[in-house]
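tool=predict chain=A
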Amino acid sequence: MTHPTLYHIPVCPFCQRLDILLTLKGRRHEVDFQVIDITQPRPDWLLYKTGGTTALPVLETADGHIIKESLVILQYLEDIYPERPVAQRDPYRRAVENMLTRMDGDFFSHGYGWLMNQDPARRDALREGMLKQYAQLNDFLLKHAPVGPFLFGEFGWAETVFTPFFQRFWFLAYYEDFDLPDDARYARVRQWSDACVAHPAAQQTSLEEIVKLYYDYSKGAGNGALLPGRSKSSMVLEPDWRSRPWPPKNKYEYSATDAELGL
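tool=predict ok
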């Protein structure tokens, strides 16, 4: 093996982080990306490499070692490709960067939890919870980077970590009619997220791809699970998402068939 191999799911936000980092460094061609179909059981050869774990992404180094967890892989790639540093080198700035990126877990969990919610009565509470997550990011940015748009002058480590979530949460706009209110409480985080999703290094996906592939998540079925009455997951690799119709937006009162989803 001459290059590291990344076993990944193309639409996965944790996998996209690695793609963004390598793109920023101009090193994407030095890592072999191998797509894994999330709608099928993990192949035995992959389970052997990972010791039985199924979570992706997984990086196999050039000398055959296995590295798991996206932030750990991200740091490994930062270390083996030190040219064009993405992480801050100043210790205090790096600490600030790390404090911000540690906020990703609650942000991610709340957004996906709202998408997968099937109880209309919980929508208002989930909306308020999502606004609270954005408000916390807004407060952090106002304290450490009030001018912006990025945390430290240019698209860097924190942006690499959060941008895939900003893009995935396009599904909240589509399925839940969610948008940040146009007021000062969210102005700084809106500036940040808008600059992040527009950055040239972060164009691996689109609103259309996310909305179509994440339809089953909006119905409460994640990770390639099948919904009742369905024979294919919206996460299948074929047919290509570009050939499929847009899914119905009303996730609470209607469930689309395979045929209606172009599957």
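Residues 38 and 205 are 17 Å apart (CA to CA). Residues 91-202 form a domain with the Glutathione S-transferase Yfyf (Class Pi); Chain A, domain 2 fold (CATH 1.20.1050.10).
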